[in-house]
């Protein structure tokens, strides 16, 4: 990585190739790491399921451990693009791209996962909330390579839910919602509304508290108008989808 910002790393290329076609980035060197077997691994520890930088979204989706150990990711992956793009696109590549509408970074943020980066000088483990610092912008330094993403393993008492609204299946989400509840706290992540995934955590919400909590969240995020939806519509989706999810996962624990 001695070339620094002059080089762009490609694992699957599903995001980078589109940016190259539109001349949004013009690196002097394009480095393809997809053929490095040492980066294609899925390993489980007591706390995390780790995906190497070469693991494709299809490989993760077909891994039974994902459904059992990280069910929120298992629910989200079918929403990611299409079968053809999932065969090439990688878990870590989606996180590195840092698109605010992407499902995988939203899941990692909701779960409180970590990114592992490495350079010639050593290795860093970066909490996801510190990794995504802006619109398609991360805390990775030019001399660093993302080598893995760590997703926390679900605990028995936790329940999860993921859904999104898009114009068509596989399109970028207008709003995506990921939720997690352990009986004592309720945690919700929202994608597609701000520059980075927005995550909030509350003590377990009573039925008469859900609407107020989600309304406050919707107005805090604000949303934006574009050709796909208005800010008002995005705020309403946060309220509606969020309530449906919170009620469902909290009721599953009763």
From TrEMBL:
SMART domains: CO_deh_flav_C. GO terms for molecular function: FAD binding; oxidoreductase activity. Keywords: FAD, Flavoprotein, Oxidoreductase. SUPFAM superfamilies: CO dehydrogenase flavoprotein C-terminal domain-like, FAD-binding/transporter-associated domain-like. The keyword GTP-binding does not apply. Residues 1-156 form the FAD-binding PCMH-type domain. Pfam families: FAD_binding_5. InterPro entries: CO_DH_flav_C, CO_DH_flav_C_dom_sf, Diverse_Substr_Oxidored, FAD-bd_PCMH, FAD-bd_PCMH-like_sf, FAD-bd_PCMH_sub1, FAD-bd_PCMH_sub2, Mopterin_DH_FAD-bd. This is FAD-binding PCMH-type domain-containing protein. It comes from marine metagenome.
